[in-house]
Write a structure and sequence with these properties.
By secondary structure, this protein is α+β, with helices and mostly antiparallel strands. The protein contains 10 helices and 6 strands; from the N terminus they run αββββββααααααααα. The protein has 2 domains: 198 residues, no CATH class; 52 residues.
Length: 323
């Protein structure tokens, strides 16, 4: 008996799980093999599909279908569809006039085509009390229409994705963050996607939004090649065997034409004092050479003195010679 009760409980759990899965990915009476043409409803943030044989809409980033007295939503134009309870259907979608329903149900008959359906009469007083004044709104404060996911035009027929492929393509190609609470709940229910809801919350409170990392748009700078190192200059020692070359300032007094000899000697002596210690040795060597040359020039003069006396004696004659 105990095992029978356990089996019965497990069977009920399996039935409940199966029904929940059916409500997530249901098959409805509308098949859209290619991306449909969507036209804006004037004065509403909603699109409708005039070429689809059904009540097909697009609002706040999702596709919506009203079929067999039920609302369904999907992020791709041909499902899979998720059943939406009347309490969670967005009000702006319910305000769309009757004339934009391509296949209106029979109970729409007799209602004004330019007015929204009478959902309060159809869904009962409980829904009407929870959504009091739903058919009255400020027409100057209508939100902007959400951008259409046009990337889905490339995925039709056999290329239509399924499962995780749908989710990955949508997250990569459609960055819109819905503003309607019911739509955000639907986004989060599809594979646990919380990014749109977080983005909408950050839009309302920008102070808490994480700061974006600064971009570096500058092109990468080419690395400058290292500058070649100049070879160390060889230090040249002055030639000790040759007198140091005097600077132009020092050579000017010596080479001036017509300068007296004494002036040239003084200029040479001054330049010798101005030279560094290593330059004095060649200068002293030159001075010694000049000192040797002076006696040599004096010797011929002394040798010529007796000759001069002989010449004077001859000029005087014998009578003048001393005895």
């Amino acid at each position: 008996m105990r095992s029978f009760l356990v089996a019965l409980v497990l069977s009920f759990a399996a039935i409940g799980s199966a029904s929940a899965e059916i409500s997530v990915g249901v098959s409805i009476g509308i098949n859209v093999p290619l991306y449909p043409q969507l036209v804006a409803v004037p004065g509403y943030p909603v699109y409708y599909a005039p070429g689809v044989d059904g009540n097909f809409f697009f609002y706040d980033g999702l596709y919506w279908v009203y079929d067999d007295d039920r609302w369904y939503a999907a992020s791709w134009y041909n499902g899979p569809w998720r059943f939406m309870e009347p309490a969670f259907v967005p009000l702006f979608l319910l305000r769309v006039p009757v004339l934009y329903y391509r296949r209106p149900p029979p109970y729409f008959g007799g209602w004004r085509r330019e007015a929204p359906p009478r959902w309060g009469e159809h869904w009962g007083r409980d829904w009407e009390d929870r959504h009091h004044g739903w058919d009255h709104w400020d027409r100057a404060a209508v939100p902007r229409r959400a951008p259409l996911p046009g990337y889905q035009r490339n995925y039709g027929g056999e290329r239509y994705p399924h499962g995780d492929e749908q989710r990955l393509l949508h997250e990569r190609s459609y960055r819109y963050a819905p503003h309607d609470r019911a739509v955000r709940e639907q986004f989060r229910a599809e594979g646990g996607r919380a990014a749109p809801e977080r983005a909408a919350r950050e839009d309302r409170n920008p102070a808490r939004a994480p700061a974006a990392a600064p971009r570096n748009d500058r092109p990468p700078q080419a690395r400058r090649p290292p500058e070649p190192r100049s070879a160390p200059q060889e230090r040249r020692e002055p030639d000790r065997g040759r007198p140091a070359e005097a600077s132009p300032r020092q050579r000017a007094p010596e080479s001036a034409p017509g300068a007296p000899r004494g002036d040239r000697e003084r200029a040479r002596a001054e330049s010798a004092r101005a030279e560094p210690a290593r330059g004095r040795e060649p200068e002293a060597h030159g001075a010694r050479e000049r000192a040797r040359a002076e006696p040599a020039r004096a010797e011929p003069a002394r040798g010529r003195e007796p000759e001069a006396r002989g010449e004077r004696a001859r000029e005087r004659g014998p009578e003048d010679r001393p005895h």
